[in-house]
Amino acid sequence: MPAADLQLLIDAALEAGKIATRYSGDTAQRWDKPGGAGPVTEADLAVNAMLEQRLPFARPGYGWLSEETEDNSARLSKDRLFIIDPIDGTRSFAEGSRTWAHSLAVAERGEVTAAVIFLPRRDLLYAAAKGQGATLNGAPIRVSGVSTLETAEILAAKPNLDPRHWRQGEVPEFKRVYRPSLAYRLALVGQGRFDGMLTLRPSWEWDIAAGDLIIREAGGTCSDRLGLPLRFNNANPRLNGVIAAGAAVHQILRARLDPGSTGIRP
């Protein structure tokens, strides 16, 4: 089933790319969601509408969780569900950047089993199915083998380096880099382009689900900020931060983080 679901997600992601790229980014209609939930564009909604019609039609027994669909509790009774971010990095999309992505995943009983992250403006398609490895444009990928934090390049927003998040207030030394899309950051770690990814704020499942499987199938470790495995289809679809890296760097980051820190406010 993961292999069949993966091909379904790949085909849907390619179609999503065709739809999104019809819009010109900075001229696409944009507005802010209520409650400070961030921006949305007409492209987000057009992609979501296609995916919400296409994917459940192909898998009528699956639940549905998407950033651009009002959530309801019906998904909680489903063994399998789609977890979708129609456009991850909406601000980048609206600015005309190329670093936004479509993030599509299937989870079964809380574990992601098929995943795609597609960046149509960069022609990058990351994919993974449970037990079958991870790929970029069809070629196998592996996480970095770097084993020391001092030589590591970690994808992280600057607020993650606040001393209050680290044991004894001592922020470890590593090279910090940044990309605006959470899904893309995870995919880059799976590719081995960077050695780790860190976000300490509560994170939506749709931003993380696809990248979680890609990291794990690429030989890495993906957990919440306390080092616990990620589980999906929660009643409140938010995760307690994310640490993603090769095994050695992941272990060091987890050990250096203060487990008593409350995280970054969303």
From TrEMBL:
Checking SUPFAM superfamilies in the record gives: Carbohydrate phosphatase
Q: Where on this chain does Mg(2+) bind?
A: E67, D85, I87, D88, D207
Which Pfam families does the UniProt entry name for this protein? Inositol_P
Q: Which domain of life is it from?
A: Bacteria
Q: Which is a GO BP term held by this UniProt record?
A: signal transduction
Q: Name a GO molecular-function annotation.
A: inositol monophosphate 1-phosphatase activity
Required co-factors: Mg(2+)
Keywords of the record? Magnesium, Metal-binding
Of which family is this protein a member? Answer: Belongs to the inositol monophosphatase superfamily.
Name under which the protein is recorded: 3'(2'),5'-bisphosphate nucleotidase CysQ
Source organism:
Ruegeria profundi
